[in-house]
Amino acid sequence: MTDTLPAVPVTTLAGGSFVRRHIGTDASAQQRMLDAVGYGSVDELMDAAVPRGIRLDETLPSSIPVAATEAETIAELRSLAARNTVRRSMIGLGYYDTLTPAVITRNVLENPSWYTAYTPYQPEISQGRLEALINFQTMVAELTGLATANSSMLDEATAVVEGMLLARRASKSKSVRFLVDTDALPQSIALLEHRAQAVGIELVLVDFAAGETPEGDYFGLLVQYPGASGRVWDPSAVFAAGSAAGAIGVVAADLLALTLITSPGELGADVAVGTSQRFGVPMGFGGPHAGYMAVRAGLERQLPGRLVGVSQDAAGQPAYRLSLQAREQHIRREKATSNICTAQVLLAVMASMYAVYHGPDGLRHIARSVHAAAAATARELRAAGLDVRSDGFFDTIQVAVADADATLARGRDRGVLLRRVDEKTVALSFDEVSAGEVSAGALDLLSIFDGDADSAPALDGGLFAERDAFALGALPESLRRTSDFLTHSVFRTHHSETSMMRYLHYLASLDYALDRGMIPLGSCTMKLNAATEMQAVTWPEFAGIHPFAPAEDVAGYLQLIGELEGWLAEVTGYDEVSLQPNAGSQGELAGLLAIRGYHLSRGDATRTVCLIPSSAHGTNAASAVLAGMKVVVVACDSLGNVDLDDLRAKIAAHADDLAALMITYPSTHGVYEHEVRAITDAVHEAGGQVYVDGANLNALLGYSRFGDFGGDVSHLNLHKTFCIPHGGGGPGVGPVAAKVHLAPFLPGHPFSQRGAAEFRGGPVSAAPFGSPSILPISWAYVRMMGADGLRDATGAAVLSANYIASRLAEHYPVLYKGDNGLVAHECILDLRPLTAATGVTVDDVAKRLIDYGFHAPTMSFPVPGTLMVEPTESEDLAELDRFVDAMIAIKGEAERVGAGDWPVDDNPLRGAPHTAQSIAVADWSHPYSREDAVYPFVGASDVDAATETARVRGKYWPPVRRIDQAYGDRNLVCACPPPEAFA
Length: 983
What we know:
By secondary structure, the protein is α/β, with parallel strands linked by helices. Among the domains are: 201 residues, 3-Layer(aba) Sandwich (Aspartate Aminotransferase, domain 2), CATH 3.40.640; 210 residues, Type I PLP-dependent aspartate aminotransferase-like (Major domain) (Aspartate Aminotransferase, domain 2), CATH 3.40.640.10. Helices cover 36% and strands 11% of the residues. The protein has 32 helices and 24 strands. Strands 2-8-7-6-5-3-4 form a 7-stranded mixed beta sheet, with helices on both faces. β3, α9 and β4 form a beta-alpha-beta unit. The glycine cleavage system is composed of four proteins: P, T, L and H. Its EC number is 1.4.4.2. Belongs to the GcvP family. It comes from Amnibacterium flavum.
């Protein structure tokens, strides 16, 4: 016996240790898979799969550095972080510093059980997330005093836009005018202006607080409450007048302020929008944060985005699920009311848990402290001889100064960022952190105004001596809140860390995420979100920065953003990239608005037709409508490719008004379309632009580039190809990349730290760079993979998909194939023949997979009655085989139903999923055994004992039976049910 260690096989994968850890299949496993598929190497497979005419010129130099190790990458991120300067932000405008409870940071934000989960379309395995989201909805609805809230929006400014669009849909007025408060947040006004123009809405700025009343009709109005200036006033008369005119009243409200001031619903508002950022979610240079929307009774079915409701399962027990799913864009397409197909779930969970942890009394205490700090500072500034131009306010005061720029400079010297209102006025906004520092005497604000005061102010040490006496002194007495909120027991129970920790663990244990096993969702790319990639997100140098901080404070951020933009431009073949869109659907919209801007700049105002293949994701059509375009559908042939004859006919029919074609490549059917160049050439010859949807970039990276085969603009999904976690349904980032002629029309922002160097297009997000605090994830991924590693990942993903397709082909027909009978990174399994032969539906198979320990693939998209499977490059061969074995076993179970061994209405598939409670009964009346129900592999002859032991020990137990979707829509309940409902 010797001390010699066994030899470790050396992988052929390029780029160093991280690449080997990211890609789940090593060289040995890949060879076994290649043998099954019938190819000698990954390169040989990719040569056969990817059309030669679109292949990347491999002699092109790369700007992407050679792959770094994990330690090197963290060191480089530390260096970038050090170039950012964290000062005490008092800028406000909807962004505030906050104290994230450590129990939430550790158990939600940094917990893969929460951040690696997918959108809760399979509700039986998403009950924890859904409960957290219904907590969020309840919190928002009760604070706003409205009947129903959705499960989050992308940010406040986009929520404001959605409020405007909802008002147009719901209003009885035929007017095209929307009234906007002059005291609304400036970034919201900028976004409204850009979005309204595309859909023919006329904005009218009105100083509501000054009593302005515009003449003429209008379909809706927006009031900021409190205003951007900090002003708190009573807008109830404005809402009453709007209602009498048939208009919808929208209020953008601060949730923390609503703990102390009268709710929008009590004032007569129809809709409330805003952000939950200051509920424990770091500023992060602008995001991600969970926006919100709530509506009065009667407007529930107008809500955009996602709405969680209460239904019941097969046993009659309460269960959560997404409600009103007919509103989803892949069903309604150009008739969708919004192009939003995502939410900000992880951030909404954090905000809701902040409310759970603090409860109503804790939130009131925080709000009173914030207001007290603002009121005390205003009092002391006045005492020092300054003109404080604020009377009724919550957290923001405005101060007259001799020279605003000089005052701001003194503030920066003392580590404080103030806001410039004009050359003679500055504003200070207080938050949970600055209020505590003022109270403790650690933040000396008065000295900043030395040069402006009539007498030298000095902190007298007694600033808060009379806190209780003046805590609400600057709030109008008539607007002080008297109604209760957060009355459900969940907000009044978990105030100790022990209780909170256990509640969060309990919810996480109900769900299925990547920390349990593969999530083989087609078109969704549920791949590894490595811990090293995630590490920098919570660093204060990235998390603690206001989005409108001065450029000199964010040099590290700007460098990281610039490098990532350059890398993304290179790998897609485009010239410029904007990282502002904070969702894929938003990136789509930004790209189409860029095309619109380009045509208008050339005098082609009539070019408004957008061609979209029938197979496309529904957000394509919805985005086109919101960009002011008319959708014309192009047919697909029997192989799933764009029908070239139909395309040419549609181009000819719209020769003078063709704006764009939207295609997905590889196609939504999971194949590399051979004629993509012919498609793009035909559109360009007719004067149109080509939008290539980047949803399937994971099948292309390193082998081909959108910009090289005719793409003019694309959005990318950093939460797919570039490893930002899905977070249970958000956050996401959807950058838009374009050729040089479209680049000037990419999203710009009035507060961009790049100034004139930024793009000239209007904004699509509240912050200049969207959700930048999660960009270090994608930066780290590219940095650790290098160009060669990115290419290896693509090859491994395509190999995995073809391996699954090959092994399952004799059991489930693979619906679409490309060149040489190969698929791209995903394959569509056709279950319709099985359903016809046995009565077993795609729903039965999806729910039965839960009993086998899997999240279902994508169901019935893009073809009803099918499953679209995408294994990604991150899964190892054992997990791929486990999935294949499960699908083969389920096929065998279905055949037993078809043979009459089990009835169609009572078999393991129709009864799936099975809970522990469902089998713990004395009277088991089903024709199949308990073992068949919950341990379907036990005793199988082709499964070895070690594998089966692992499966039994790692058994996932769903918390509920199959959920009745229709019941939930008929009986719409979208707030926390009483505890006795679960008795």
